Amino acid sequence: MPAASRTSQSGLARAKNREDQWGSSNMSQPSSSQPIDWEPTPPKPKPKAPKRDNAARMKFIEQALAEAAQKPAPSQPTPLTTSSVPNKRPSTDDITGNNATAKKARVLPPGYAKQSIVASTSPSSRSTPAAQSNTPSSSAPRSKSKLAGVFLSKEQSHILRLVQEGNSLFYTGSAGTGKSVLLREIIKVLRMKFSRNPDSLGITASTGIAACNIGGQTIHSWAGIGLGVESAEELASKIRKNKKSVTRWARTRVLIIDEISMLDGNLFDKLAKIAKMLKKSPEPFGGIQVVITGDFFQLPPVSRTQPKFAFEAELWTESIKHTFNLTKVFRQSDPRFVDMLNEMRFGTLSQRSIDEFKKLSRDLQFNDNIEPTELYPMREGVDSANRARLRALGSLQSYAAMESGTITDPTQREKILSNFMAPKHLELAINAQVMLIKNVDETLVNGSLGRVVGFADPDDYAKGDSAQDASGVVGGGSMNLTAKKGPSTGSRKPYPVVEFGMTNGTKRRVLVLPEVFKFEQPGAQPSTPPAASRTQLPLILAWAMSIHKSQGQTLDRVRVDLKKIFEKGQAYVALSRATSLEGLQVLNFKPGQVMAHPKVIQWSKSLSTIQDDL
To answer: Where in the chain is the DNA-binding region found (predicted)?
Structure first.
């Protein structure tokens, strides 16, 4: 066959030609002058097996099966190194794990003991790493590393298990016992459980800030009750006129309420009654599983008269089947400091603790230019303090947020956006002290404090520049950027380069780019645009912060002036943000300013610990 004709044939046809060419006994072997096919040497013809009739074929199959059944099964699995399976990567370890390479020792978070750690029961999520350049560069910014997995104590794991089993419960604990960490894990597990029916899960909190922190909405907004001043019957009638609210109540199977301490007891009763009416069920909370958390020793409900706490509600005991008090403190590792905070929580300080608190009026010593964050009871004091410090720094860079969303009512959208930690307008300058308000990786987390050391233009960067200042990128981009203190030469706005202090004493500089902060309607599909969103740098000025916004935060250095405290629980919330006595400065301390509500003290005596339930 001519070569041109042979190349146009399929591989199957060419193989058939070779079989005809070399398999027939009446054809001569090809000489060196003949065209040679792609195989280097022609295969030798195999002798043809005699054809079997159907009966012989069946007998052959039966014999083969019988021989296979008589062979004993191997007692040990085949090692990967001797496996006959093709295309397998060789391994020095066998399937049984013998001679396995020793694993790197696990590094546990501060405050955890190895024997008290229980791994989360929820499967871990894996993210596909971003495509990397094939040109190596020592100056390339570090990519965002995956956040460390969540480790739960035995107390936390027990509560998570009860939630997964469908129990309604309330858990509390002093500041730093991991209430927020556990709640985020509960939300993650329940979202996975109801991934096909996201409307089944209601995520709420008593305040807008707390709701934004857990990706939910206020209980008032979720329930569709407005201010909730009417009776339960009137509110139920109001809800029935709103199709979205009716559907939300009908589909909800689990309701989460965070920061329960600021929810009025009368409103809790109304919600429990509304659930029964709308669900048409006499079951507690209409058959909805409720998961509630918070610390009643912290900020109380806003009330012109004596507050009525949620635990005083008529339907509290009926709705909550289990109540637990977390006891393991993770934020503070100094037992002396933990004891002082516990005494403050109950409003009864020993003379030793009083003396210790009075010693804390001294100035804090630091050498990394990160000053203590001052906590104020009112927002006006925060704005005034931050503004004064910023103006003293000179030239400012201003960043206006971009806002959007499906909510068309400007008043409603503005109300939602006002609860975002990210500000509408942000002004920065070199040496401004800032706080990161979004988790990035294990070392850069929500609450990390840093200092602006320069500004970088996204259009003005040098790849492979070993003198590059910015060692990484935070936010919506991934470019190698050069931080600079001079004027921008690029076409886009320069962004801040922030130097953060790490817990091990080192420093890390990153370029901070804008992030999108979103509020999504309950049950919305991932592809649905958010109800409200704000695109802004994930930073806030951090010379000062309100006590209210500091709830849930962990701060290495804190300054508190107790002369400005006016509400029960405020002093405890403020001082318990600190991680150590060495990082806490207390001004104008007087024992009489440490107050706890008598109702909360009496009620707390009925709390059980996890050990009591095991």
So the answer is: 570-589
